[in-house]
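Form 12-C: Joint structure prediction
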Amino acid sequence: MSTADIRMRGFTKRTPIKTLLSLIKVHSQLLSAEEILIVDSCGRILAQDINSPTNVPNFDRSAMDGYALDAESTFGASAYNPLMFKVVGEVTPGEIYEAVIQPGEALRIMTGGPIPKGANAVLMAEHAELFDDQIQVLEAVTPGKHVGQIGEDVKKNQILLKQGRFLRPQDIAVLASVGLKKVKVVRKPEVELLITGNELLKPGEKPSGVQIIDTNSVMLRPLIQRDGGVLKAVLHLRDERDLLRRHLSDSTADLICMTGGTSVGIEDHGPTLVEELGELLVHGIPMRPAAPTGFGLIPGSFGDSKIKIFLLPGNPVSCLSAYDYFVGRSLRLMGGRSEEWPYRSKIVKLATKISSQIGRSEYVRLRIENERAFFIAAGGASILSSTTQADGFLLTDEESEGFAEGEEVRVWLYDEY
Amino acid sequence: MSTADIRMRGFTKRTPIKTLLSLIKVHSQLLSAEEILIVDSCGRILAQDINSPTNVPNFDRSAMDGYALDAESTFGASAYNPLMFKVVGEVTPGEIYEAVIQPGEALRIMTGGPIPKGANAVLMAEHAELFDDQIQVLEAVTPGKHVGQIGEDVKKNQILLKQGRFLRPQDIAVLASVGLKKVKVVRKPEVELLITGNELLKPGEKPSGVQIIDTNSVMLRPLIQRDGGVLKAVLHLRDERDLLRRHLSDSTADLICMTGGTSVGIEDHGPTLVEELGELLVHGIPMRPAAPTGFGLIPGSFGDSKIKIFLLPGNPVSCLSAYDYFVGRSLRLMGGRSEEWPYRSKIVKLATKISSQIGRSEYVRLRIENERAFFIAAGGASILSSTTQADGFLLTDEESEGFAEGEEVRVWLYDEY
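Section 2 - Result
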């Protein structure tokens, strides 16, 4: 791709969105594994199969509060023929009762307590009437009743969880239950944000004159986290070619998002720098906003692996949509997650029509009221407040002219609960 | 409630689940506000209305890369009547061009650049042909074209976001755009986990003999975080009444989860301690597992506010279901969130029947395969692996006898994407 001719000339050619998506898929390979503490592993992706080194439990235990006894010696007990058992002691979880329970004896036992020798069943506390040191048994108990057997939860050598698993709260609890301390998970992709623009002030500063606040870093930070990335650095840089070049060359990230300077203006160094340092695979897509989005690869400072670089438009709505359509997907793929959006969706009737130009996908913001979706007209790539008014969004198909009023559409709901 | 009679006797009376839920609602009041940095506020609940102190942008700006000029001087331009404009300089975002643009002059301008005096429109770069220091204009431009006006995104004094708002990535970006640095959000409920049981080892230790690993703290930690709580302490304590009493008396948390020791066994100090120190509102519910769940209030070490205390069964499946049904809800209410479950749900056909005893709600774990839900028979409150095999769960109604095979049910999906 020759870049000399695009500055101040517009995009001569736009890459179809599908092509960009498949390039992202090809280049967003699964990252290597790292070992972390199980207690910190919820939400991570398992990078190994886990076999259990042990039975859980590793002893027969009581599933109830009650009395451990020999089941056979209760046979024949009924309301008409109550049998009396001598309570010889008690055992609570974590203790061992050493003596052997004899027929006619019972051991008071708490839920989780180890079944003593000589006993093979537990009579529930509610079904026994206590008289001094004896209990009255009014019905027979079957062998094994209320006894949790060795390995009833997890069997030794059983495959507990498989590679690729998204670890949920109960999953990491099971991993801990077999005595494991650490686990191998897919490494989190490391992300650097290069926020470019001479007009930008850092978040927290006061806008004044013709200076405006960088809001993209504020917005991208939680999105990167949601998609399993870890933000290593946020750099606010002036539109100076050498400065930008140095930062790109020195990067050790897995992925760089460069916002601003991605279009065809004279200060738009992004595309030409990527081409100079590596390979500019895509520049310009048929999507509105976010048309000046770019994607490329540059050499990493470490070894062979290449750094994925996304050129995101500086306008905040463009930046949001391009992040969500492309960068988030790349991060999720590298981290071993589903490439699909994490957003919930909802089928809703359109209260207004939506026009879209054939050959271009529109990122449409929608407000939902009484199960009807209203198009938010306050358009423009720079109108960030259009996304705060919106409950969700949709992307029109490149082949579509839009939707009629009353048509049902799938709206993707911005994160919220 | 008299407790002397419940030890080793079973629950004489169970509190309906609806009653427990409404007690939770009454006692889980919204917490006070705290001021935090906007960049850290994503996912928090806004505790104030926010009015914008400024216009965004605070100057007229270009919405395109192109040429700023006086629109009227382009009137009459066409392919048959091209007009030439002299390019007098350029302006990029963050710069000010001081001179006044005269009719017949054009200023090269980048997206976001301030419109100079004398100009009221921008001609897109793609529509101008450059010849040395002149551009050829082939069509007229209307006044205001591609000009983003003062306040087009946010108007000074406009209400930006209202109290109670769940802050999304774009919301905090808009807050930053108006030059705010900090924002008041609802304080996060502080939680203490008291894990009781003489048989328990800490996560990461090796199970041996009749000792087992505490898995409840591993599982509850990410759930508490999900529900907006902050885990202040995890304490593993022996079943010693004085020790437990001291920890309850000294607590400074908003909410305590005590796991284990909640039932009617002789080592079950939880219920009687809560009654002794404060008020035991509920002990025993018609839910399986999780029947020994309790809820009460004890005085806090600070001022008037009472600490909510949940007594959760030690068995992990019971602990998970009781947390999810009751504790998570309380945390969400205190933090200003929706009391509803954060889980996604799905209507699925049952591949197997589900039996439920009238008068009791069953926490049923289900595996979903080809859009059909399979009941996971490996029941029992202690079988944690039943929840790792499951994709989701449902709770049967107290009045229901269960569901027939082929019936459609709503399954709540355990967190995953």
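Section 3 - Comments
The longest strand of chain B covers residues 83-91. The two ends of chain B are 45 Å apart (CA to CA).
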